[in-house]
C-alpha cells in the first residue's frame, strides 16, 4: 500500500505542477507578446514574437489536460449525487462503480487514441508551424500522459469504492466531493 501512496503523491504533484506551470507560462508569454505588438506599433522594425501564440496555446493545452487529470484525484468534476442518495446502498455502490468503470473505459480509449495521434505525428515528421525545428508530437504528448493519469485515477476510485461498505458509498461520494473541492494540497 505504501507504493500506491507514493505513486499517488508523485502523480498528483506532476499533474498539479504541470497545470500551474503551463497556465503561468501561457499567461506570461501572451502578456509579453501583447507588449511586443504594442511596441511594434511605434517601432515596426521590432515586430512581434511569431512563436508566442502557438507556444501559449500549447501551454494552456497542457495546463487544461493536466489540471483535468488532477481534478479526478480531487473529485472536483461535475457529479450529481442526489439520485445516488435515493438508491438503496447496494444499488448506489453498483452505480458508482459502473460510473467509474465507464469513465475508465472512455479515458483508456482516449489514451489509446491520443497516443496514436502522437505516434502518427512522429511517423509523418510533422513539425510545429512557428517553431520549425520542434516536432509536433512533443507538444501533443500532454494528451496521452494526462489521459493515462486520469485513467489511473478513475480505476483507483473503482478499487476504493469496491472495498467500501455499501452503506457509506453515497455519503462518502458527497462528502468527498465537498471536502476535496475546498481542501488544498
Question: Can you tell me about this structure?
Answer:
The protein is an all-alpha fold and 185 residues long. Helix content is 81%, strand content 0%. The longest helix has 41 residues, at 2-42. The radius of gyration is 21 Å and the shape is elongated. The two termini are 20 Å apart.
Number of strands: 0
| Spans of at least 5 consecutive residues with low confidence | none
The main sheet comes to: none
Helix content: over 70%
From N to C, what is the helix and strand string?
HHHHHHH
Relative strand content:
under 5%
Radius of gyration: 21 Å
Termini Cα gap: 20 Å
Mean pLDDT: 84
Structural class: mainly alpha
Number of helices: 7
From the spread of the alpha carbons, the general shape counts as elongated
What labels describe this entry?
single chain; mainly alpha; 185 residues
Layout of helices and strands:
Elements: H1 2-42, H2 52-74, H3 82-86, H4 89-124, H5 136-140, H6 142-163, H7 166-182
In short:
The protein is mostly helical. Helix content is 81%, strand content 0%. It is elongated, with a radius of gyration of 21 Å.
Amino acid at each position: 500500500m505504501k507504493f500506491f501512496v507514493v505513486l499517488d503523491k508523485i502523480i498528483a504533484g506532476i499533474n498539479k505542477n504541470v497545470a500551474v506551470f503551463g497556465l503561468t507560462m501561457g499567461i506570461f508569454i501572451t502578456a509579453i507578446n501583447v507588449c511586443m505588438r504594442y511596441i511594434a506599433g511605434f517601432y515596426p522594425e521590432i515586430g512581434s514574437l511569431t512563436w508566442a501564440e502557438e507556444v501559449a496555446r500549447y501551454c494552456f493545452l497542457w495546463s487544461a489536460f493536466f489540471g483535468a487529470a488532477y481534478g479526478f484525484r480531487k473529485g472536483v468534476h461535475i457529479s450529481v449525487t442526489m439520485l445516488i442518495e435515493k438508491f438503496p446502498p447496494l444499488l448506489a455502490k453498483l452505480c458508482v462503480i459502473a460510473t467509474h468503470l465507464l469513465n475508465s473505459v472512455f479515458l483508456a480509449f482516449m489514451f489509446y487514441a491520443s497516443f496514436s495521434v502522437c505516434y502518427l505525428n512522429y511517423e509523418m515528421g510533422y513539425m510545429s508551424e512557428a517553431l520549425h525545428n520542434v516536432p509536433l508530437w512533443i507538444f501533443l504528448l500532454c494528451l496521452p500522459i494526462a489521459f493515462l493519469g486520469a485513467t489511473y485515477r478513475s480505476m483507483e476510485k473503482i478499487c476504493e469504492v469496491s472495498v467500501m461498505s455499501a452503506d457509506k458509498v453515497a455519503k462518502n461520494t458527497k462528502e468527498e466531493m465537498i471536502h476535496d473541492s475546498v481542501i488544498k494540497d
